[in-house]
Amino acid sequence: MTPPDRNPHVNGDAGTTEDSILRLEDGDIYVCQDGPRDAHALLLVHGSAASSRSWDALVPLLTTSHHVIRIDLPGHGRSAEPVDGGYETSKQARRLGTALDRLCVKHVTAVGHSSGGYAATALAEQRPDLVTALVLINTGPSLDAFIAPEPTTIDPTQWPPTDEQIRQFASTGFRTGYQVPQELVDELRSMKYHAVTAAMQASTAYLKQHALPSRLTALGKPLQVIFGDQDRRWRPSSAAAYRVVPDAKVELLPGAGHTPILEEPQRTAALLLDFTERHTTQAPNVT
């Protein structure tokens, strides 16, 4: 087994940050770890056309009490495209599970933003021993909840797009008036066209198979849903669809759009920490 390439460094109050590239058979995966390694782990899964950097504002608020693990999904951020070209949600989940096994992590609360919630849910379906609880942040429950207009088509022959094209493409990902961070613009431009479109198509296919509330009901895991009430991609009232999941906790964030992890990190972290305090396993987290 090839050991990961590691790059530890200090990240202010968050303690030691360790960047790793895990050499997996189907492509290298980038991992970033923060916080005490003996604490309960939070796995943070970003959405399509994003990366682990979308969690930057939230991480320092979580690391005093949690081992925070961020993983770039294949073809996103610093992770390689999958060798087999497959972006299916089930394959994304398997890669997440393999990465956590390589890190010797035994239990996680899986936290997904937007379509990252589908990969987090699929991981719990595949590895119920590994995922102890789920937190979904602005993750659409079913396709009929989608309200955003189709994004402006970008000709693959003209890829990469301009800053203005990317900002227009990403605008519904934030509340009205919120400036799309330049680093996210730069990261999306660095992605391959196929990675962007295939990941989005995979999310649609996953929802077409089964709506998320039915999947989560079958899982029987503790669930928290956080939804910005100004979301311009998914109908905010659709968050109520998750209430059919036994004991699910559903919270609307007033004034937040589709990405409260950047727009409202303090309020998002407070809800997440309250939930994990009540549902954290007491079992040792690492071997």
CATH fold annotation = Rossmann fold
Helix content: 25-40%
CATH architecture: 3-Layer(aba) Sandwich
Radius of gyration: 17 Å
- Tell me the domain tally: 1
The biggest sheet, with number of strands, parallel, antiparallel or mixed sense and barrel status, is: 9 strands, mixed
What structural class should be given to the helix and strand makeup? alpha/beta
Description of the structure:
- With 287 residues, this protein is of the alpha/beta class.
- The protein has one domain (5-279): 3-Layer(aba) Sandwich (Rossmann fold).
- It is built from 8 helices and 9 strands.
- The chain has helices at residues 89-102, 116-126, 163-170, 182-190, 193-209, 212-219, 260-263, 265-279, and strands spanning 5-10, 16-24, 27-34, 41-45, 67-71, 108-113, 131-137, 223-228, 249-253.
- Strands 1-2-3-5-4-6-7-8-9 form a 9-stranded mixed sheet, sandwiched between helices.
- Strand 2 and strand 3 form a beta hairpin.
